[in-house]
Batch of 3 targets.
Target 1
Amino acid sequence: MIITQKERPASFWIFVLLCFTLGMIAEMIGVNTGYLFGNYTYGNVLGPKLYGVPWLIAVNWFIIIFCAGNIIYRLNEWLYKKLSAQMRPSFIVQVFSFVIDASLLATFFDWVLEPSAIRLGYWQWIPADEIPLFNFACWFIVSAILLTAFRLLKFNKDNQFAIHLFIIQVLFFLILQTFL
């Protein structure tokens, strides 16, 4: 996705770093305390770990947030072009709407991913692979923080590959759920 990003100003790299860092910290808190997401542990499938969290998970936070942000941003831009200037909501309403919609989309992705990830040994919920609703609430909150940064930072948010990657991943995990 970084290669397909048309422009990569400092604000884009700040966003990448923010996703990686906040995603990793949230997961470390989650794995080591259970305060975020619930009680879970990562298996060895995703590679090397730092404080119980695979580095790949931080990359995953960037991918999901960037993809969800691109999809909702593009949908909003399309919609706002269809509306007259008087009908467009204020900037604050636009940002709030974007953050809510994109956070719901990112959380939806986690919901689709969870069953297959458990079966593939990416992580394990304690007790007995019961995914707590708290997990999805925390996903929504962490996503909202990162998507606020996505929306407010000034960089090109028109990455067609991100949209296709999100669709491909959702379909991939839905297919896995069918056959696992």
Target 2
Amino acid sequence: MSPQGLAGRVADRGRLAGVEIDASLASALAEYLGLLYRWNRRMNLTALSEDDSGLDRLVIEPLVAAQQIPAGTQSVVDIGSGGGSPAVPLKLAMPRLCLWMVESKTRKAAFLREVVRQLRLEDVVVHGCRYQDLRTRQKRLEVADIVTVRAVKMNREALARLRELLRVDGRLFLFQGTRVDNVWSDVPCLRWLGSYPLIESLKSQLVVLERL
């Protein structure tokens, strides 16, 4: 499919999900998807297909989730960034964000750096490490207004570590299916704010927690 055709498809899928995507953003998202699809044919960046359900998961879900980002949000840390979703679509939709993408696998981290270069993204850092090792790389944590997580297994220990990345009143965005274990209920200083439907056909939702 041509870049123009892919951009049109992105805009159409957005409208079906109740999200208006202007021509500039649709073009940027199509450029990102084109890169991802080309690299994915050579290495396993994502198991998602190039059909509408894969497109919905990769770029439409993050745009729906962006509606829950509070005004004034400045910094986002994305955990297990892999093929770049939800981090890259969020950055394209909200260019003012300062973004960290954390990815432990070398090839995936290389792809993310290529995305940053090709799409000319500013204020983006790719950390090629596990999120558990960020403490040894950074002088201080508690840097993020929002931490996003998809396709990373969550338990109480993981949530406690991710909490360390958040500022007080910062929010943890968990991209989940409809069946979610309430593993955060006894993690100190984390409060559930709400669960929000994302893509109906995918039965996906966004769980939002706040650091107290």
Target 3
Amino acid sequence: MQHKILIVEDEIDIAELIRVNLSTLSLETEHCSNGSVAQRKILSENYSLVILDIMLPGKNGLDICKAVRSKKPAQAIMMLTAKSSETDQIVGLELGADDYMSKPFSIPSLLARVRVQLRRVELLSDKQSYPDKQKSISIGRLSVDQINHTVHLDKKQIDLTSLEFDLLSFFVQRPDQVFSRSNLLDKVWGYEHDGYEHTVNSNINRLRRKLKWRDNEQIIQTVWGVGYKLSTRSCL
């Protein structure tokens, strides 16, 4: 599968650094420095991954992420943030970014994260191409269809990003088992790294909001001091 990556970054030196290093993975890249132009390109063209800076002329990365998520929920997005801007990191993840990198970032870490995102894209493509190898899992009123990449709760379809789907799919295959944030980073994201707990927290929070179907009932529950689990009882 040939991948094309859009680098949305107005600092030319950083964009070129990313482009040169992605070329070592034999990846096709395209660069855009204006946010408004980038949003139009993302919505009209097909990119395996968008590497998206937050501070951009025309339109900022947070607004772009929100707009893209509403139109193309499966689009893989990695955001670039200033190291000191924890708020931007959290907001970006809450708006639907799959991952983030803080500037300055290490090249090996960037390449590892890009590979993780591309593996997820390839897995989704394989599911669509070979649906007979997949399965559907139901727990009470929750149904996760890995053939069509859809989720239904109490007969209502729930729209998830590809990463949210992967996270929920991981949980439904292991109901009532508790996993720490580092476990989830390793098993779902494909890496473990101190300081990236926000990535897990934000995706858990988004899943909870989307899967909430009864007052004060959370399907994904916190086990204090340990981690998270999917509660079979809450799906009934």
